[in-house]
Each structure stands twice: as structure tokens, then as C-alpha cells.
Specification:
The complex is a heterotrimer.
Chain A: H1 3-14, H2 35-45, E1 49-53, H3 57-68, E2 73-75, H4 85-88, H5 92-95, E3 100-104, E4 107-109, E5 114-118, H6 119-122, H7 127-130, E6 133-139, E7 143-144, H8 147-153, E8 161-165, E9 170-171, E10 179-180, E11 187-193
Parallel strand pairs in A: 1-11, 2-3, 3-6, 4-7, 6-11
Antiparallel strand pairs in A: 4-5, 5-8, 9-10
Chain B: H1 5-14, H2 16-38, H3 43-59, H4 61-74, E1 78-82, H5 85-98, E2 104-106, H6 110-114, H7 117-123, E3 128-130, H8 133-140, H9 157-168, H10 177-194, E4 197-200, E5 204-206, E6 211-216, H11 220-225, E7 230-236, E8 240-241, H12 246-259, E9 266-270, E10 278-284, H13 288-292, H14 308-312, H15 314-319, H16 330-340, H17 357-361, H18 368-381, H19 387-401, H20 403-419, H21 445-453
Parallel strand pairs in B: 1-10, 2-3, 2-4, 4-7, 5-8, 7-10
Antiparallel strand pairs in B: 5-6, 6-9
Chain C: E1 2-5, H1 9-14, H2 16-28, E2 32-34, H3 44-51, H4 56-66, E3 71-74, H5 77-86, H6 93-102, E4 103-105, H7 106-113, E5 126-129, H8 133-139, H9 154-159, E6 166-168, H10 183-186, H11 188-204, E7 209-212, H12 215-227, E8 233-236, H13 237-241
The chains are: A alpha/beta, B alpha/beta, C alpha/beta.
Chain lengths: 194, 459, 245
């Protein structure tokens, strides 16, 4: 018998008799009067920056300015500027020098400042993690109260990968001193489009 | 025979200022958890939901694991099942050999610690770089982690500075955490970019989708997984949860319970390998199916490895993770480890005053302190208790079942203590090491009652 | 209402004044109190050490002594909790069940059964309150900081009825003192360190006394205080409520 069969047989023999799943009463879950305000407060508390903008044109200007200054910037948001397919599929050794990346997110979560990004939005799974500075863009109407609401809005098995990102990378592993910018992005800014 | 908790704890406590620092640091983490929990009026309800979801899952574990395997396989993931740590290590070794892999990065996985993966691979001259900063630090120092979430919590910045000076040639005496983290950043980013294999743990495996979630603050799991051509995710089979929507419950509890954050920086949801990548999941038993069959202890399999129980435990905070001489220390370790090796871990359920705080902070409502009590009964029944203790317990049981003998012994004992105080006031009496003995009164309560108290009362 | 007084073994032998205060207090409050003469121990020291299997004789004796009362009251949270959770008698299962359902720790008996609103007691001192774990978490004598539930405390409620008393709580209001039964000798280093840390927090409040509902905790703290040459004394809550000095 294979290990698989052995293990499954042992589990079947030992598991307790069936009990049912609980009902998650959503009206018992917290909501926020101003979800954007909560999102901003929480994310800035954990080291991110949040800016409310009226138009994505502002972001387009920033990208163009960065490129003119010779900053290694990648944009993955189709609506803003054309996407450079060659740059997106550079090897990790090249992408290691990536200064900034702009990615569109699907939802923002007010309770924890997180933004969900699908693989199709980041285009290359490595981009949000390898860049020095991460820029995310979400629509204000897509900010939900809690993770329960977020999971209502996303399908985690729609694509091969997806991630909630809440802030720049960080660690407190050295004597509990918080250091922003561990291995991943040193900063995160989320532009919320009104 | 491995040293036991009491002896190791005594060594730890001998440095009292350092013990105070360790205790204060972890208490601070517990306070952050309290603050985060207070922020959600539905906190206690959330714990109840999580507990019930896990109870349900355990009652249909076989079904969910089959569903998970089917879906994961359909997603192009290669699923392996292994009976124990040894088989786990061998399978990973095989994959390494098949691909001629030399450069491996590993993010935090308590399961791989449990299986002693690093030691196994080292014996075969294969180097694994632990990429969680805390784990990298202890790896350089050739120590095990002392806490499942904060692996280097027992180290001060001076210790880290010395270690980095030795291994990364940082400035001697520069203890600035920012400076040290920056040095580690450069060192590890280099390793990621060059890695051929990324090994990660699994925080949650979702039966409904065949996918799994990995949570980090540093992004180290992702950095490796998205660069290396091969990704192996290792999980104990109890990490399975039924549906994607349940992640809402568990992710809301996990980081708040662990460190008081609302969520970890990255909660990565892996479904399929990236194009061109080979992705493996190793599902591990290693005693879990046995624990599942123990009615009194199967609840321990609900654990989501948040370590809230460590941070609240007054004994853990004053003895440090290394005193538990196992991969998973603290209160949860003390109810998991006796199942793996009862003899070696017979001391652990006794490393507790049964205060019950652990049970109250557990996000999935494991009745830890009750299981500690129950393990004590099992361990004694199996004979893993020293004979002097056994004798004195038998003596006590006899005494307490014979009222006259009890009274006589009590009276005699007190008399001896009054007339010959050195009988108790000496260095053989463990109590007396740092405490005075209680004053032995002339009359017991009963004697007073019969002489004085009863007179004024009708009987 | 017939009340049986259950006096834990170490109170009977080493702290009879706690038993005396309990008896006097209950009678002051109008109870008809009996003291079953052949009681010994609840069996907790053996059970917590893994030897619950040896407790049959002790349990049988307990059931014999305490059957047939409306209430059983003890000045000890841990002993009461042990009886509630573990008292069984194969020969008299109903009697054991009745006892489990009618055993009370002193403070909860006063607040929940007698429902006292005032007490004629005076204790003009600064008193630090120690929350004994088994009473607090096992019997719910007070809320705990790690749970997100309404705040309350039965011992504090009673102490606040005492005239001229000043009640202080340590910074870590519900951390264990470190006694833990045989833990106090088998893990002596941790046990004493935990006790010392409790004492330090009470010293920060400059209390004259440390009180609580469990003499086991107090005995352990007292042992350390005496070794430190401290002027701080320990006193059981029954003694304060009975104004015994």
C-alpha cells in the first residue's frame, strides 16, 4: 500500500463523527462608516501611504516623469500607458534592479489596508515583490469593509496566483524593532481613484 | 537522554535580567494581540466560527484531502503523500537530485523543522538558506528557532550584530536593526535571484480550490517561489480548510493573534505553477493521524501555528523556546510532542501551572490547558514518571483516603517542623531554596473546631 | 439552607485562621454551617500530577462527607474547580453529581447565592488583589484581560464593600503566581521567578497586604516575601471580609 493509501485509511479510521459547518452571520461582522478613511488609517499605520486622486492621468504623469529621469519603472496598468512586454518578462537578475512598479488592484480591504492583486494584473508574479517601491491603484468604490467581503468579490482560483498586499515589506525579527523594507518593497503607495 | 524543561529553564532563568527582558518582550506581543482583538467587537464570535470550521474539517478530513489533491493535480501541481519526517526529507532530496539543484531557499516552515530537513540535507552536502530573517539569524548561529513566529526572539541586537559581523562582514559593534536588516536584504535578495529551488510552508490549504496560502511580512516566501524553477510547498495534513470563504475567518484571526497586526504584509494564494515552473505539494502525516485517533487530544490538530499561546504563557516567557527541546515549543508543543515521542517529551505537559490563559487566547479554541492535564494522566499511566514522585503520590493517595492517618501525619509533621525546623529548612527541601516554609500552627482547623468552634454551635 | 464547610487540606494544617474566618463569616451572614469531620482533601495534588487514577479512596471519602447538603463552600478556587470537574464515585454517581452541582468557592457563594450587597467589615490598609487562575478562569470569578468580554470581578466587588480599604491591582492583572501544585517544586526556578515578578508588581503599588481567594498562591508568595525580608503580608480574602487581622 502506498503512503497515500495508508495515510488516508488511518485518517478515515481515526476521524471523529461528522459535525456541521457553522453559519457565518455576516451582520455580526464589523462595518465602517467611512471605508476609505479606515483603509487609509490602517495602511498608514503599518507603513504604507494612501492618496486619493481624481483621475489616473496623475499616475500617467508620474510614470512618464520617472522614465525621463532614467528610473527603472514598469507599468502593468493597460489604461495608463502601454505595457512593455519585454521588460515584464526579464529574468530575475535584471528585475532585481527594478525601482518601481505600478499595478492595478481589484479590491481594497478597510479593516487591514490590504489590496488584492490577480496574476493577470501584476503580469509577472515576481514584480510586486522584487521592486524597491510598489505603487498600487484601486478604485474607491472597490474598498470593502472586511476580508469576508473581499472573498465575496474575488475568485482565488480564477487564475494561477493572487495576493493580498498590505504595506511595504517589513520585519521585527531583530529585537522586535520594526524595520520597513525587509526583502521586498521598501515602500508602498496606494492611489485610490475617486 | 535529553535534558528536561525544568533543568533547561533553570539555566535560562539564571540570567535574571535577560529573563526579564525576554518576558517583557513577549508580554508586549501579547498586549499587541489584545489591542488588535479589542478592535473587533466580533472577536469572540470569530474564534467560535474558526473553532467550528476546524471541528467540522477534522470530521471530514479524508474527504477534504481527496478533494484538495484532485483539484491541485488538475491545476498542474504534483502532490506527494509521506508518512513521516524521514520520507518527507527523502522525497525532497529526490527532487533536488532529479534537477541537479544546488541553490535552495526556504521560507518559514515549522513542518520542515519538525522533519529536521536542513540537517538531513546537510548530511548529503546540500545547503539550504533559510530566508526568514529570524530563521537566517539562528541558522548562522547553528541554533534552532525558539519561537514558531518570532524565531530569534531570544536574541538581542548585539547578538545579531556579532553574528552578522562574522557571516556578512557587517561593521563590528553596529547594532542598528535598520543597518543589520539592510545587510541581510542584500545578502538574501542575491540568494533569491540565484535560487533553483524554493521550499515554503503552507498556512492554509483550500480543499475547494486545490490552492494554498502562504503568509509572510518579509515577502521571502514569494521572492523564492517566483524566481526558482521548482517550488515545493510542505504541509501537515491538518492545514486543510474546506472553502475559500473560510480564509476570511482564519486570516482575520491569524496575524492579530500572532503579532497584533490586522494581517501579514503578504497573503499569497498559490493555485498553479507559473508557466514553465514545476510545483510540488508534500502532504505529511508524521504522527498526525495517530493524534487524530486520540479523542482527548485530536483538537490539538486545529492549530494554525499563531503562537498566541506562547506569548501569553508565563512559563514560556520565563524559560524560552529552547527549554522545550522540540521544533514546536510552548503550550501547543506540549500537547503535540508527547504524541510524537512520549518518553522524550514526558516533561513538557508538566512545564505548566495549568493557568488556562493559553486556552483563552487560542484563535481556534483548543482546550490546551485541559489537554495538558490529560497528557499528565497518560504519561503517568505509561510509566514515564520518576519513581520518587510515584511513591510520594501513592503515599498521598493513601493518606487522603484515611482520615485518621491524614490527621495524625499532619499533626506529627507540624510538630516536627516546630521542634526540629531544620527538617524542612534545609537545602534538600526544594521549596526552601528560595522560599520560607509556612509557619506550622499548633492546632489544625479541625482541632480548633472541636475544641473551641463546636462548643458554640449545635451539632 | 444547610451549608457544609469544605476546608482544603493545607488550610486545615497550615492556615487554620482562614478556615476560622470562613466559618465565622458565613455564620455572620446567616448560614447554618456544618463541618464534616472526616474530610481530608479534594485530591487535586495527585490528579494534577497525573495520578488521578489514585484518587478513588480520596473521592469516596469526599462523597461520604459532603452528601446531603444544600451547598458546599470552600475558601479555595482551585479545590472547588477540581471537585466540579473531577469528582466521581462509581458506587454513588448521583451523590457525586449532586456535590459537583452544589460546590462553591467562597466569593462566588457570597455574590451569587447569598447575593450580599454590604458587609460589616473594616480593613484600613492598602491591599493588592491577586487573581488566582483556577478561580478566575475555571470558575469565572472575574473576567480576564485576554478575553474580549464584559469586565467584572466577584472578589473585587466584595472587597469594595469593606470600609477604609484601598484595593490595588498589579499591572499584569491576571498573570499566574507560579505555584501550580507540584510545579512549585518540580519547576522550582520558574515557579519562584513567577512569584517574584508578581510581588514586584504589588510592590510598585506599595501595598501592605496581598490578598486572594487561594491560600496556595498566598503561601507561595508569602514564602518569597519572608525570604526577601519584606514587610508585605499575605492574607486570605475571607480574613479581610471577616475583618480578622
Amino acid at each position: 500500500m502506498s503512503a497515500r493509501e495508508n495515510i488516508l485509511n488511518n485518517i478515515v479510521a481515526n476521524q471523529p463523527s461528522l459535525v456541521s459547518l457553522p453559519v457565518i452571520e455576516r451582520n455580526a461582522v464589523i462595518d465602517y462608516g467611512d471605508r476609505y478613511a479606515q483603509f487609509k488609517t490602517v495602511l498608514e499605520d503599518i507603513g504604507g501611504k494612501v492618496e486619493l486622486i481624481q483621475d489616473i492621468a496623475i499616475i500617467k504623469e508620474k510614470i512618464i516623469a520617472d522614465k525621463e529621469n532614467g528610473v527603472f519603472v514598469i507599468n502593468t496598468i493597460e489604461d495608463i500607458t502601454a505595457i512593455n512586454e519585454q521588460e515584464i518578462s526579464l529574468p530575475a537578475s535584471e528585475l532585481e534592479k527594478l525601482e518601481k512598479v505600478y499595478i492595478k488592484g481589484t479590491v481594497g480591504v478597510a479593516e487591514n489596508g490590504a489590496v488584492w492583486i490577480y496574476e493577470s494584473q501584476m503580469r509577472n508574479r515576481l514584480l510586486p515583490f522584487i521592486c524597491q517601491h510598489l505603487v498600487l491603484v484601486i478604485d474607491k468604490k472597490d474598498i470593502v469593509a472586511t476580508l469576508h467581503d473581499a472573498y465575496d468579490k474575488i475568485e482565488i482560483d480564477r487564475e494561477g496566483f493572487g495576493v493580498f498586499i498590505a504595506g511595504p515589506s517589513k520585519t521585527a525579527d531583530i529585537e522586535q524593532s520594526l524595520v520597513i523594507g525587509a526583502h521586498g518593497a521598501r515602500s508602498l503607495i496606494v492611489y485610490v481613484v475617486e | 537522554m535529553t535534558a528536561k524543561h525544568a533543568a533547561l529553564a533553570e539555566k535560562f532563568i539564571a540570567d535574571e535580567p535577560r529573563t526579564d527582558w525576554h518576558d517583557d518582550t513577549l508580554w508586549f506581543v501579547r498586549e499587541k494581540r489584545d489591542k488588535a482583538a479589542h478592535g473587533l467587537p466580533e472577536w469572540e464570535q470569530l474564534r467560535e466560527w474558526a473553532s467550528q470550521i476546524k471541528n467540522h474539517t477534522l470530521s471530514n478530513l479524508s474527504g477534504y484531502l481527496r478533494d484538495f489533491e484532485e483539484k491541485a493535480t488538475a491545476n498542474g501541481v504534483i502532490v506527494h503523500w509521506v508518512a513521516d519526517g524521514d520520507e518527507h526529507n527523502k522525497i525532497i532530496h529526490e527532487i533536488i537530485r532529479k534537477h541537479n539543484i544546488e541553490r535552495i531557499v526556504k521560507s518559514k516552515s515549522m513542518l520542515t523543522e519538525e522533519c529536521h530537513l536542513n540537517e538531513y540535507l546537510q548530511k548529503h552536502n546540500i545547503e539550504v538558506i533559510d530566508t526568514d530573517l529570524g530563521e537566517r539569524i539562528v541558522q548562522m548561529r547553528k541554533e534552532p528557532p525558539s519561537h514558531i513566529v518570532l524565531p530569534a526572539i531570544h536574541l538581542k541586537k548585539e547578538d545579531v550584530s556579532n553574528t552578522f559581523h562574522e557571516h556578512l562582514q557587517t561593521e563590528k559593534g553596529n547594532n542598528d536593526p535598520q543597518y543589520l536588516t539592510e545587510a541581510a536584504r542584500g545578502h538574501l535578495r542575491d540568494k533569491f535571484v540565484q535560487s533553483q529551488l524554493a521550499i515554503t510552508g503552507v498556512n492554509f490549504a483550500v480543499a475547494e480550490t486545490g490552492g494554498f496560502v502562504v503568509c509572510t511580512n518579509e515577502g521571502n516566501a514569494d521572492f523564492g517561489a517566483h524566481t526558482a524553477p521548482v517550488h515545493i510547498a510542505c504541509m501537515g495534513f491538518e492545514k486543510i480548510i474546506p472553502k475559500a470563504e473560510h480564509l476570511g475567518v482564519f486570516l482575520r484571526l491569524l496575524a492579530r493573534s500572532a503579532t497584533g497586526q490586522p494581517i501579514t504584509t503578504y497573503s499569497s494564494h498559490f493555485q498553479k505553477p507559473r508557466p514553465g515552473q514545476e510545483m510540488h505539494i508534500v502532504i505529511v502525516d508524521n504522527g498526525r493521524s495517530k493524534q487524530l485517533g486520540r479523542e482527548d487530544f485530536r483538537n490539538s490538530l486545529k492549530c494554525i501555528r499563531c503562537a498566541a499561546c506562547f506569548n501569553t504563557c508565563p512559563v514560556y516567557r520565563r524559560s524560552g523556546g529552547h527549554s522545550y527541546h522540540t521544533a514546536v515549543a510552548g503550550p501547543i508543543g506540549s500537547i503535540l510532542n508527547p504524541n510524537l515521542d512520549m518518553k522524550a517529551n514526558a516533561d513538557l505537559p508538566f512545564a505548566s501551572t495549568l493557568c488556562g490563559s493559553c486556552t483563552n487566547v487560542c484563535p481556534v479554541k483548543i482546550n490546551i490547558h485541559e489537554q495538558l492535564w490529560k497528557w499528565r494522566q497518560v504519561i503517568v499511566a505509561e510509566g514515564y514518571v520518576d519513581s520518587i514522585k510515584k511513591m510520594s503520590m501513592k503515599g498521598m493517595a493513601f493518606l487522603f483516603s484515611k482520615p485518621k492517618v491524614y490527621r495524625f501525619t499532619g499533626k506529627f509533621g507540624r510538630l516536627m517542623m516546630r521542634v526540629f525546623p531544620f527538617i524542612a529548612d534545609n537545602n534538600l527541601n526544594v521549596w526552601y531554596k528560595q522560599r520560607e516554609m509556612p509557619e506550622p500552627p499548633k492546632e489544625s482547623f479541625r482541632e480548633w473546631y472541636l475544641k473551641t468552634g463546636k462548643i458554640n454551635r449545635k451539632e | 439552607m444547610k451549608v457544609a464547610l469544605f476546608i482544603p487540606c493545607y488550610i486545615d494544617q497550615f492556615y487554620p485562621q482562614v478556615g476560622i474566618a470562613t466559618l465565622q463569616l458565613l455564620e455572620k451572614l446567616g448560614c447554618d454551617v456544618a463541618f464534616p469531620l472526616e474530610q481530608t482533601c479534594c485530591g487535586q495534588p495527585m490528579a494534577n500530577s497525573g495520578f488521578a487514577s489514585l484518587s478513588k479512596g480520596c473521592d469516596t471519602n469526599f462523597v461520604e462527607n459532603f452528601s446531603g447538603f444544600d451547598y458546599i463552600v470552600a475558601p479555595s478556587g482551585s479545590c472547588v474547580l477540581h471537585v466540579k470537574e473531577h469528582l466521581h464515585d462509581a458506587k454513588h454517581p448521583q451523590k457525586a453529581l449532586d456535590i459537583r452541582n452544589s460546590v462553591y468557592e467562597l466569593t462566588e457563594f457570597l455574590t451569587d447565592i447569598l447575593k450580599i450587597e454590604s458587609i460589616d467589615a473594616r480593613f484600613p490598609y492598602k491591599v493588592g488583589l491577586h487573581n488566582s487562575c483556577h478561580g478566575q478562569r475555571g470558575l469565572h470569578l472575574s473576567s480576564m484581560t485576554e478575553r474580549m468580554l464584559p469586565v467584572f470581578s466577584k472578589p473585587e466587588q466584595l472587597l469594595n464593600m469593606v470600609k477604609d480599604i484601598q484595593v490595588f491591582k498589579p499591572k499584569r492583572n491576571d498573570e499566574c503566581c507560579g505555584f501550580g501544585g507540584t510545579f512549585c517544586v518540580f519547576e522550582e526556578a520558574v515557579s519562584v521567578k513567577m512569584g517574584k515578578d508578581r510581588i514586584e508588581e504589588h510592590n510598585d503599588n506599595e501595598v501592605d497586604y496581598i490578598t486572594g481567594g487561594d491560600t496556595s498562591c498566598l503561601m507561595h508568595l508569602e514564602g518569597i516575601l519572608k525570604r526577601q525580608g519584606s514587610k508585605v503580608k499575605t492574607i486570605h480574602i475571607a480574613e479581610i471580609l471577616n475583618s480578622v487581622l
